[in-house]
Amino acid sequence: MDHEHNHDACIEQALSSADEICARRGVRLTPMRRKVLERIWQSHEAIKAYDLIGQLSSADRTVKPPTVYRALDFLLEQGLIHRIESLNGFVGCDRPQKAHQSQLFICRDCGHVSECGDEGIRRALDREAARQGFHTEARIVEVRGLCARCQDRAAHA
User: Fold this and answer.
1) pLDDT per residue as tens digits for the range 53-74
2) Structurally, how many domains does the chain consist of?
3) Secondary structure E strands in the chain
4) Residue 2 falls within a domain, yes or no?
5) Considering the domain boundaries, does residue 1 fall inside one?
6) Residues annotated in the binding site, as ranges?
7) Do the beta carbons of residue 143 and residue 106 sit within 8 Å?
8) In this predicted model, what pLDDT tens digit does every residue of 31-46 receive, in sequence order?
């Protein structure tokens, strides 16, 4: 994903998609769930639950951890966000319209996360699991490295 894009439009598209998906499924995107989703989409970097709690709390109102965790659970169940296991954080899903297995590319310098949904990778993992007699419960593929922007910055430093 290009780091230099209209991020406001990106956020608005994610929220609009979430509204449509939830309406179609007959589930509620409550104001708190929407706020959590919006905060997650503020950047394309993983955000931790306690950072969300801090961002959503104000001087006159503290948001309790269970409230945020319930919202995160809902957003995960609906496929609107991904959990990044290695960072214990969350990022918005680029393809929430249908169930899929994503591969996530995580830049170790800037923290940018981009999503890939290559079915060939999923099939290769399934074939190898079957070959080993392994019952797969989850496929979590997280690739760490340097994004193009950070590589370019390092080359010109």
Assistant:
1) 999 998 778 999 999 999 999 9
2) 1
3) 81-84, 89-92, 103-107, 113-116, 141-145
4) no
5) no
6) 107, 110, 147, 150
7) yes
8) 999 999 999 999 889 9
